[in-house]
Known about the structure:
Radius of gyration: 35 Å
Low-confidence stretches: none
Helix content: 40-55%
Number of helices: 2
Largest sheet: none
Mean pLDDT: 76
Shape: elongated
Distance between the termini: 111 Å
Structural class: mainly alpha
Amino acid sequence: MASNLDFSPPEVPEPTFLENLLRYGLFLGAIFQLICVLAIIIPIPKSHEAEAEPSEPRSAEVMRKPKATVPSMNKRPKKETKKKR
């Protein structure tokens, strides 16, 4: 009865190129998603020097006077007369 048992591993075909590509692509996608989630959860603080430089041009932009809007010449003036019924 002991001689009837077969303990050899089952025959499994080797994965094809497309199966390997799919497997590793899924792994890379999962790693990318984890990195994105961690980037949202754990924000990286910016250095003080990087914050100081962009703020200077912003203050100069605020100091400028806004340009007056110039009416375009292509538009027709509105009629001021009422419609006759």
